[in-house]
Design a protein that fits this description.
Blueprint lengths: L2 H14 L3 H8 L7 H10 L5 H4 L4 H27 L1
């Protein structure tokens, strides 16, 4: 991958991880009230429904979901880059 692509990923990573909530979710340090939701984000995001986020703070949900999704995306990206050499 080009350094420009790497720079883009690093900018996305830095922007998301500027949030303490996102950093915690990125590391897998999920607060108990978000654990079921973040497990879905990591494994089956397409299964998330309104009731999964009902009663939760919207900003916290968005930040946590971004952190969890980023961790998955970067892991998948690393596997893909390794596979293509």
């Amino acid at each position: 991958m080009s350094s420009r692509g790497d720079e883009g990923w690093e900018r996305v990573r830095a922007a998301i991880l500027a949030s303490p909530v996102a950093r915690a979710a990125y590391r897998g340090d999920d607060p108990p009230e978000l654990a079921p939701l973040l497990a879905k984000v990591r494994r089956h995001a397409y299964r998330i429904v309104d009731r999964d986020v009902e009663g939760l703070d919207p900003d916290t949900v968005i930040e946590a979901m971004l952190g969890a999704a980023l961790a998955v995306a970067l892991a998948e990206r690393a596997r893909a880059l390794e596979a293509i050499g």
